[in-house]
Design goal:
By secondary structure, the protein is α/β, with parallel strands linked by helices. It is 25% helix and 26% strand. It has a single domain, classed as Ribonuclease Z/Hydroxyacylglutathione hydrolase-like (Metallo-beta-lactamase, Chain A, 4-Layer Sandwich). A seven-stranded mixed beta sheet has the order 3-4-5-6-7-8-9, covered by helices on one side. It has a two-stranded parallel sheet with strand order 1-2. It is globular.
Length: 169
């Protein structure tokens, strides 16, 4: 935001604050950036036939364990017959909460999945992936990263779903 022009920002409702977040809010105010804070149930319309449905976080059910990751913005992009589920850095505990809300709705099922938390072993449980059923799974990782992402068990679970896995390694 300090080095580029930003007109609009959309963030998840926050479960906690920090010095970085306070600095972020000051910058938003100083640069007169339109800030929209969203949570489960909100819809963000981009244009006709293109919108995001916010699935998480739920301010009535914030997760205290690793709050920044587990209350990350999870949203589903819809465009005609195409959908993409963006999962941020949620971990298993958030996936379990999300599963409770959406098991019987088909809302998690998506053409493309942006795999949670860089394909970390703490995310992408079998139960969660079985509801998403992605045809393509995108994993954002750095080459030779210190964390060993993506985790081989996560890659195996995706492969078992016959999902085509793409990472930026």
């Amino acid at each position: 935001m300090e080095n580029m022009k930003v007109k609009n920002l959309i963030i998840a409702k926050q479960a906690e604050t920090s010095n970085h977040f306070e600095k972020f809010l000051r910058t938003v105010k100083e640069k007169n950036i339109n800030l929209k804070v969203v949570e489960k149930g909100n819809k963000i319309s981009i244009e006709k036939n293109l919108y995001f449905q916010v699935l998480w976080p739920d301010s009535s059910n914030f997760i205290s364990e690793n709050a920044l990751n587990n209350n990350a913005l999870v949203c589903k992009l819809y465009y005609k017959n195409f959908s993409c589920l963006f999962t941020g850095d949620i971990e298993e505990v958030a996936e379990k909460e999300i599963i409770q809300f959406y098991t019987n709705t088909n809302l998690l099922n998506s053409t493309v999945l942006k795999v949670a938390h860089h394909g970390s072993k703490t995310s992408s449980t079998q139960e969660f992936l079985a509801l998403v059923k992605p045809k393509i799974a995108l994993i954002g990782v750095g080459s030779n990263n210190l964390y060993g992402h993506p985790n081989t068990d996560v890659l195996t679970r995706l492969s078992n779903l016959r999902s085509k896995n793409l990472s930026n390694r």
